[in-house]
Amino acid sequence: MATTREQTQARREAKLNELHERLSGAVERLVSGEDWARALAFAAQFRTRSFSNTLLIWEQHQAAFEAGLVPEPFPSYVAGYRQWQGLGRQVQKGQPGFQILAPVTGRFATATPADAESWRRLGKGEKPRAGEVVRTRMVGVRPAYVWDASQTAGDPIPEPPAPKLLEGRAPAGLWDGLTAQVEAAGFMVLRVPHEGMIHGANGMTDYTANTVAVRENMDPAAQVKTLAHELGHVLLHGPDQDEARQHRGIGEVEAESVALMIGAAHGMDTSGYTVPYVSTWAARVDGKEPVEVVRATGERVRKTALTILDQLDTAQVGDGTPPGLDRDAAQREAPAQAQASPTAEPASPRQATPSLEPATRPAPVSPFEGRGL
């Protein structure tokens, strides 16, 4: 007869399997540039959460909206049950939580931190030995629940000011902030009069000359978006990035996706941006399923965009965390890979060939129209 612990473990595994199937289904539906643009514009408003958890929240909120449980098709703020209580709000009776992947962490100790094999996991309540260093690592994932603000009632939620932009205008301070990050990476920003000087593109990153060029004969919003695109190339694509080098579509989608998230986080209209069809490039990566490629790319994009946004002193839209809530590090959900491995993703070196942003764009598509995922 199964013990209570075994039954609990079996239920957890069943929930995790269900979550992974739900997540795979959501990723598989990202088959076009339009779907990818909607997903990234949405993720920009929930950028502190992993790409996987963003998709899980979106997909489940859509289902709740279709069932008449929530008033709007998109979430506003999401938090855990006790987190909402801490803000003076209570989840309403009958409102289902949205399942996400939360981390399971363990404490590890060693007297020789440089030796990767020397780390040992500490038991519950176990103290390190004299001279040992202690670090916390993620060792697995578990299902957890969050609720949208519309599923709660109680004290009013303060609305922080959001940037308002006129069409074609660039957010105040964004060009200078992006330029500073490009220069910090060792590149010089050049403004050129027209696209003929950079092979007909909107922008070009030259890894040999260490320059980033942006054409001036565009409106300010397009120029700053192009600079964000090129900064994405600078931070993501180098000689060791084999997939991006062998499949240019991956590199272009990643850079444009970073730009889309940077723009969306500043209230910019991203509907006219170039987002190549995901199904085209994802299906061409040998040895990997398209779902794996999309999921990994989404998390790389989110991390890079978040790194850029954290260094900007600009007015940005909210990140999906209710105002006044300090999300404790121990309660942060797992990365998009959602695997038990605690290893970190290495930084990307630079590659030696120029990268161009295409000057042509598809027909505008609203990032929030339709059913999304």
Protein described:
The chain is an alpha+beta fold and 373 residues long. It has helices spanning 4-28, 33-44, 51-66, 81-86, 174-184, 220-236, 242-246, 248-264, 278-282, 290-310, and strands at 78-79, 89-91, 98-110, 120-121, 133-148, 152-154, 188-192, 203-206, 211-215, 355-357. The strands form three sheets. The chain has a four-stranded antiparallel sheet with strand order 1-5-3-4. Helix 1 packs across helix 3 (51-66) and helix 5 packs parallel to helix 6. Mean pLDDT is 79; it is low at 329-352 and 360-373.
Give the overall shape, derived from the CA principal axes: globular
The unreliable regions are 329-352, 360-373
The separation of the N and C termini measures: 42 Å
Structural class estimated from helices and strands: alpha+beta
How many H/I helices? 10
What percent of residues adopt helix (DSSP H or I)? 25-40%
Q: How much is the average pLDDT?
A: 79
| Global Rg | 22 Å
Q: Count all strands and give the number.
A: 10
Q: What string, H for helix and E for strand, traces the elements in order?
A: HHHEHEEEEEHEEEHHHHHE
User: Strand portion, in percent?
Assistant: 15-25%
Please summarize the sheet with the most strands.
4 strands, antiparallel
Strand order of the largest sheet: 1-5-3-4
